[in-house]
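Case study 2.
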Amino acid sequence: MTTRRLAVLVSYTGDGGVEKMMNHLLRGFVDAGIQVDLLLLKARGGHLEQIPEAVNVIRLDARTSLLALPAVIGYLRRQRPAALLAAKDRAGRVALRARRLARVPTRVVLRMGMHLSGSLAGKTSLQRLLRYLPVRRLYPQADAIVAVAGPVAEDLARIGSIPPERFRVIPNPVISPELPERAGQVADHPWLDPAALEATPVVLAVGRLKPQKDFATLLRAFARLHAQRTCRLIILGEGPERARLQHLARELDIADHVDLAGFRANPYPFMRTASLLVLSSRFEGSPNVLVEAMALGTPVVATDCPSGPRDILDGGRCGPLVPVGDAAALADGMARGLDAPTEPTQLQQAVADYTVEKSARAYLDALGLVPTLKPDTNTP
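Prediction:
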């Protein structure tokens, strides 16, 4: 058995935050001298091109996660890696079943990035039960569970009756060495031209246009804010709610002051330049967009949703926290953020632990692999 061989089991299914965070982690592992096999349950999306070259990619291309079980069992028997990191729930279930059936001593660590109870709010009792059962039956078999925020760990511990000491809370590897350079490019939007921005502040939101992000409440809050002062709103992202949000903007008579600007591969110049970044989500795990904006020194306001914003914003000391779904409170929070922005140095210090190197070092410790990382130099 190669003592420093690590397997990572995950699905790449689009251009989301999980895939980006996994690429950051993979690079951190490689930089630590770890031999990494990346087992892809699915392989779609632009983040595939960003996988570090030193990573050995094994495409399982399974129609469902469960159908990949025989291939994962075979891999574990042949390669016998020291550790297996499984990201996302379905990959975790496959990893735990595969280790048991392969009868290998591989250490299995699960990564959980979503607040499970929060994501199931509004679901029926049966839907919640079906989602909770695998957690209760399988997760206690994991050697460790990495949660991206404390409330995520507490939620899973309660649902699965898992001892708290089995969990590790590790910040996401959000801040990469390339962040300052990418953010330094020009924000390609007329509203973010320096002269235009000086005359009219711009509020920015970034995320997929779907109910979880609750951009409908953001639009209602912005309408209140716009009635009090001249301002503009840019939302970066695509998704199924575009038509509904456009209709709502017209209904609120703010369409001329709101731009649903679509998905941008590099949103960081927008984050660096905007007057304020707002997160209006109903639930999260640990919202990377908040960390990215703060690392760039941009003031933020967020809903106090489960989970992540409260920890990232230090209980509201680094930016206003407002109730979920409350347009009046969100409008007030945005006004406060514009009138009394938090100092950039305070924001950057608050997210200093979210670098690729620090996160990778903590993951390798949880995986039982000794990191040999150079000193962290990633903080912008």
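The domain at 179-350 is CATH 3.40.50.2000 (Rossmann fold).
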